[in-house]
Amino acid sequence: MGIRSLLVSLALVVLVASFCRADPAWNGHLTPGSTTNTRFTPYYVPPGAKSYDSSSPLLHYTGTWSESFSSAYVQKSMRSSSEEGAAMTFTFIGTGVEWFGNQDRRHGIATVFIDGQLIQDVDTYNPVSMKQQRLFWTFSLPQGKHTLKVVNAGKKQGESTGTLVDIDALVVTRGPSSDVSPAPQQNMVVSSQEFPSGSSGLDLSSNFPASAWTLVQNGSTGVHAMQLAIISETHALIVDKVEHNPLSVSGHPAWAALYNLKTHALKPLAMQSNSFCAGGTFLSNGTLVNVGGNPIVEDHTAAADFGDVDGLQAVRIFEPCDSDNVDDCRIYENHDRIRMASPRWYNTVLRISDGSAMIIGGSLKGGWMNNGTTNNPTIEYFPPKNIHGSNGLPIHLPFLIDTLNSNLFPIAFSLPDGSVFMAANRDAMIYNWQTNTERRLPRIPNGVRVTYPMTGTGLLLPLSPDNGYTPEVLLCGGSTVDDTKPGYQISSQDPASSQCSRIVLTNDGIAAGWQVEEMPQARTMPDAVLLPTGDILIVNGAGSGISGYGNVIDQVGASNADNPVFTPVLYSPSAPAGQRFSSAGMPQSTIPRLYHSVATLTPNADIMIAGSNPNLDRSEVKYGTEYRVEWLGPPYMTQSRPQILSGAPKVLGFGEAVQLKVRLPTGSSQSANVKVALMDLGYVTHAVHANSRLVYLQFSLSNDKQTLTITGPPNGDIYPPGPAFIYVVADDIPSIGVKILVGDGKSPAVDQDAQRNLLDKSTVDQYEKTKGHPKEDSSE
Ligand SMILES: *[C@@H]1O[C@H](CO)[C@@H](O)[C@H](O)[C@H]1NC(C)=O
Ligand SMILES: *[C@@H]1O[C@H](CO)[C@@H](O)[C@H](O)[C@H]1NC(C)=O
Ligand SMILES: *[C@@H]1O[C@H](CO)[C@@H](O)[C@H](O)[C@H]1NC(C)=O
């Protein structure tokens, strides 16, 4: 061996060693980059951000402030004042700032100003004494110079014994200017609304030119938006993994929150286990389950952590929360009573025709690409069933062995005959869960892989009584990278696929095979969103690379992908082939939405876009952790829209006729232009839009066009019983959606024997005992 090849092999060994080190998900025990376990506090300086201590000469104090010293403070020092009017002023360049200090019984209220504008009063009182707490944060200021001013208001709430206000440290988000070359900015309205507890926001909007589509940036998710589901007419549920999010709960960073779609206010939710990377679905009774997740990594244990427990077998219950007051909404977990039989990381969760959840595949532990050792080639159900002799235990699915390696987060849809379509890697099949049989479909053409980490996306196209609910599936994007290659042979610059593949799931359609078309831009990790009009909006993703972080060569920061795609594209399934894609009048974003991005239709019928975090823990290095929300408004948002005035039932039975009072826009013509869309907005994570569904309802319109008699879907095969939104669409303009429950509203059947057998034959949270840390109360 020559010296040159020796060097090459040595370099390879080093490369392999460093890639194998990559953690699947940070578990919260140890600050990334440090080697010693530290006492946990919300104070955190993300890579790329800069911290300023209370004693920095850049912080200007007026009035009387005293300095105190303790190892519990950032840089061991802190300034405090109880004097009304005492102020701290700090000028910085960036897009965000965070203020940290103590909270206890003696603390009072401070007023925060940015650039001279009053933002909010911050109450720093807390009955429990806590150090290094995040007292205020904002992340979406326009890039540039800003001044933060914190003024002691001389006020306190009733229980407080003093008016103390502390400055321990400030952390500046320096913003993207240094590391992202922004795309041309069009139709962007920038504002900041992420202040805790729904306070008034900072409106730094500028006028934008009138245009068909609009893109508005407003609000911040507070916890990174890895998973997203619309839970009511007013709120979205956001679920993340354990990481240093700015939103806190019980004195530590939160990893789930409710987002008010109207006011952009946030409510943090306490969660016991690590929800990285769970899936989810609503059940027939309207309850949402969040399933699977991440273990606690054993060699990182320490007494000080986020208080999370092993999430691999977790079934987290979120009961219906339909009021716009979400104070009492919470996530319930009790792994002794409710859990899966087997561990699952990156599983897909699907509501099936009987209203229960089918839980599909996943890995037995955290990792990256699936393989024969980590694979969990089974399905199980929640609530557990006793079918095919399983008695609540997992049922083997050969498809999930044949589709290794790139087969995590399978794409799945419930079909109108009650069976289930699944795509994984380059393959697809129809699974009849009642007979436990697989019908393999033709392979996806041209070697395109569509599931993690070669992530594409998929949708069931709208179902309509006009063609007997003929099912047709669309898969878009992904990658042709060889999934047997190790990470060090895959590059973030490997091109993504621009292919969309479409198949009609009838005997004739299957015989005809996949029809292939090309998106205008290649994408891995796209999100596809059904609109009530029947069109599909494709957004987010990267032009090159694959999903995940820390695995491939040419990483950008830690991202395995690069070349973010900034322009959404509309796909019209019923247009003639060759004329289906259009980005005409489409605004461009400036926010990269790569791994861990999401998008969903909202009740208002615009599109909520959030997330992106190809990082172990919150980071501000390209491509950083993204909290900003964008709202993409189709042209219909600014037109005169139909209205559902009254009559929407709480529960719409199968085949049941119900009268809605409606107001159609004046000038809207015959009933031929009216459609009634029944939609499941889905549970979105990792480009999987599980349960996304549009079923057009049969209806008749009264002569005066004020009464619409709609008929519920024929059965649970056509629309699996569970929550839905009804949109009345006139001349391709949808109304605001109204939430209902389809079916009888009852809970899915519970098989007590299967449940008992599952609990007997499976162990709870294999890693939990290694923690030696008391379980966190799920109440706040
Ligand atoms: C952001 O949302 C708030 C609350 O709905 C609203 O008052 C504000 O005008 C919005 N800002 C922009 C730029 O749309
Ligand atoms: C399978 O994946 C796991 C987790 O990423 C990894 O630790 C293991 O080395 C892999 N095994 C093989 C045979 O590649
Ligand atoms: C819905 O069913 C699930 C599964 O049995 C159960 O855990 C949940 O509490 C039910 N929710 C309601 C509102 O009945």
UniProtKB/TrEMBL annotation:
Residues forming coiled coils: none
Species this chain originates from: Pycnoporus cinnabarinus (Cinnabar-red polypore)
Record flagged with keyword Zinc: no
Domain Glyoxal oxidase N-terminal: residue ranges: 254-636
Signal listed as a keyword: yes
Name of a matching Pfam family: GO-like_E_set
Keywords, alphabetical: Signal
Domain Galactose oxidase-like Early set: 641-740
Protein name: Copper radical oxidase
Biased composition (Basic and acidic residues): 758-780
Leader sequence residues: 1-22
InterPro entries on file: Gal_Oxase/kelch_b-propeller, Gal_Oxidase_central_sf, Glyoxal_oxidase_N, GO-like_E_set, Ig-like_fold, Ig_E-set
Region named Disordered: 746-780
